[in-house]
Amino acid sequence: NAVWALSGLDWALGRYHEQARLLASSAASEPDPELREDLLIAAGESYAHIDDPVQAEKELRAAAKLDPTDYRPYAKLASRGYAPRKDLAGARAVVAEGIAAGADPFELFLGLANAAHAIGNLDAEEAALVRAVDARPSDFVAVSRLASVYMDAKRFDQAALWWRRAAEIRPGSAEAFYQLGLAEEAAYQYY
Q: What pLDDT score does 191 carry?
């Protein structure tokens, strides 16, 4: 599609405002609802990139109206719209809105975790990752991220527990076993 090619060119040349406007105007005239939604999401991300949260929210909310069960607009709005403004309450509200509309809770809680991480709220990041893992217990990435949060919080017993779980999910992961060893060593009490 020519729009995506031009959008990529604008990005490569650092013409971020032009890219955002191109994507938004292309979405407005796109007859295919799925492609229109993709264009709106991309436009929202572009507007977020140029620090225009009002326009980013407008585009992402328009995308959510096209398919309320698609997690992407809500997750992007949480992490790219509200997080830069340090608005954790807004991020939580948009995630709740997405869940109420039938969007995938796992992906939405990952979006909320991304927002909390960007804001620097380790407790909120942990809570969102716990909810994500509850929704999809065998997801290696979510379990690993949760283990990393516990490592960052210096809660090494919890980190070891979750790295062990990550190693069980993906037994061939050297990273999981390495991190498990670090967590167990840090949790060990020398006498």
A: 66
